[in-house]
Amino acid sequence: MKKRLLLLDAYALIYRAYYAFINRPMRNSKGLNTSAIYGFIRATLDAIKKFEPTHVAVAFDVSGKTFRNDIYPEYKAQREETPEDIKTSVPIIKNLLEAFNIPIIEKEGFEADDIIGTIATKANPDEFEVIMMTPDKDYGQLLRDNVIMAKPARSGNDMEIVTAKEFCEKYDIQKPEQFIDILALWGDVSDNIKGVNKVGEKTAAKLISQYGSIDNLLQNIDKLSPSQKKNFEEARDLIPLNKKLVSIVTDIDLKLDIDNDLKVSPPKTEELIPLLEELEFRTLLKEFGASKRKEQGQYVQGSLFDMPANKPERPTFNLKTIDDFDVDYRIAKSRDDRAKLIDELKQCQEFAFDTETTGLDPISAELVGLSFAIKTNKAWWVSVPKNQDEAKSIVQEFAEVFANHNIGKIGQNIKFDMQVLLNYDIEIKGKLFDTMLAHYLLEPDARHNLDYLSEIYLNYKPISIEELIGKKGKSQGNMRNVDPELITRYACEDADLAYQLKQVLFEKLQGQGLTELYFKLEEPLIEVLTHMERNGVTLDSQSLKEYGEMLSKQLVELEKEIRNMAGVPDLNISSPKQLGEVLFDKLKIATDAKLTKTKQYSTNEEELQKYIDKHPIVSKILEFRGIKKLLSTYIETLPLLVNKKTGKIHTSFNQAVASTGRLSSNNPNLQNIPIRDENGREIRKAFIPSSEEHLLLSADYSQIELRLMAHMSNDQIMLEAFEKGEDIHAATAAKIFKVPLNEVTREQRSKAKTANFGMIYGISAFGLSQRLGISRTEAKELIDGYFDTYKGVKAYMDQCVAEARERGFVETIFGRKRFLPDINSNNQVVRGLAERNAINAPIQGSAADIIKMAMINVHREIISRKLKSKMIIQVHDELVFDVYKPELDEVKEVVKRCMEGAASLKVPLEVDMGIGNNWLEAH
DNA sequence: CGAGTCACG
DNA sequence: ACGTACGTGACTCGA
Question: Where does the DNA-directed DNA polymerase family A palm domain lie (predicted)?
């Protein structure tokens, strides 16, 4: 990995920090204005955290004359005196930098930009990436392939990265040095440099873009308009001086060994702490205070901070694009071309492929073409005609290679391509390497889109889809209309990138011991989900519609009543802001209303429930909310998602979203169809079998997460309860309340149930007290009682956290990992979340693994037994099937056996099944 | 586009 | 002193 050098322009950043707080300066108790100090140090540390440089330096201007004043006495002459607060801040900042072990560099007669220019130029491009942190645009002239600029964050936004390429594009110039000429024409008000009259940024850029340089421009001065020519004639003598003034010096004699002198090293804590204490920088003290871990010196080597050993790749920039490579992307135009391609594919052990389609909905999308990558930078594009009969016959030419078991297929989100190709009767066999899923296992919390992966792992920026079909939203373009040359580059690039990513990611999977999880679980699941999504679910839109009409009437009625009670005729009840104001300001139903983090009144159900007796409007609002939710999220929306082609609803199961390993479902989300609430569960009645000859079968794991808790913690008491087949919540109640099992009250059981769930989530006394509406002391007692009973559970939870601390991750029973870098955070809120994740992720994730295994096995049996019945929905611990009635007994047997046999735990896995003419009945 | 709310396991 | 149970997706409002 290249070394990375971060160079900071001290005064520019200090000024910026100072003025950022100008309206509300920070002061310590002695009255010292610490805005500039804090702002600058924070920006510096943030940059170090973000860029993770191996080398760093801060450049200061030296007060007094510089060589620029010698050649131009008016240089910066108009500048106002430096504010007193900044003057006093600078020595303190220098002390701080020293304590942080960040080198300071200054040189008499020169400015910070000259120092940075010199170092950036001197740093060997093969050895160093250089980041210049400054808000000053002039640094643009220094940009190179290995030198980028970081402009500090402006309020709200992240800091802005500028690369040489982007910079040149912005000014439409060939190389960054040309910016000197632009500046010389443009001038610089803040430096008191007068440019050419009537020439600003835009004109200067245009002229340099056009003529290449000032010299050439002046030679062609007659081509300018008369008035412009006059302005240039007048400025002619000034230009050489301007050029000198705006040119950043790159060859100061600094007597500096970059590699040795600027190396990042840990702060000198003993010097740093007193300084931070005096300044009263509490957050920084927390961060750099002498915590135990710091004393043990757990720094990642070469880092200023203690960072988790396993962290996302460090940020990259200066991304390469297609133009930086000599790629061999070809179009297969004729049948002969395709035959040649197919021949090449047959010779491959593996190839990457991608489909381009007319849309993102795989059911209705039509193929526009296919791309295949055979090796790095070598790919083919096969265009597919609009006529679907012709299309199919061309695509069919590839059926054999796709179906070949011995040829591996690589792709990004293969499920989509698999579905599209299924429309053309193409089956995909052989090992599938899905780069998205591989990365999901490697970094479950990260994003996994191709652009991101390319950037991180290949240092490459793909052609943006917007270049092809325009921004979505307005005048949505179509893949069909894209220029053939361009679509070839785009599609081949995608396949090529998938191919290249596979090589990187496969090695990483092996390194992490994740290949087995990938090939046993995630890879076979691709095909299963493909079929489930395609199967779809039948919706009884008619009954939904009728139910919706009834609810709508109630809603209108409620709205009227609520507005009347509120005395606000145009109240929007769906606006929490308006609602809160009505309830708490106007009706004053309470004075101690809870506020949200944006200081609005909190009007969620939990809060409103507290005031239900204060005013009759409250219960009406809750009722309104409930009905509105059902209507807008389900009743009115689901029928719109019925596919015209199939008459069914086709959700999309996302296999790479949930960081614990679960699936998620969207478009629509079929995993949150109401069931708890009486009104809501009516909606389940609209999910029906595909025909009269079918039934819905729902099979769900009983208490799978608690069983996993028992299994993983090896808690004898809990294991025993499950083995005896006891009602686990009642059994828990009996034990923690010390009553016989048959005397457990409803209330006790309910409390125990909440406590059981609490364990799975990584409980806190506060959380439990909130849920149960009891005091924290009571909650604490309850938890103590719980741990007293289930001693193994307590030990297991502690062990999870300890493991996460030690290894940086926790694991499921199938070896799925979740990395928890925050487990060592100094921020206890952040750390607390990581600790609860350490407890919850192995449980939730193992349950996800188990049902995935079950789905794969059920699917295989359905195929091998050639059943007409279909698996259609998964809801985390439940599978729903559209069962062909004559197969009912067989399907029930297969499903139960596959689900219960998906893993062998210390407790039996139990599955409950139900059948019915709709999803509600089946439950 | 974020915040608030609420549906599910 | 501070904020607190885990994981999702969809809708609505309003800057």
Answer: 680-887
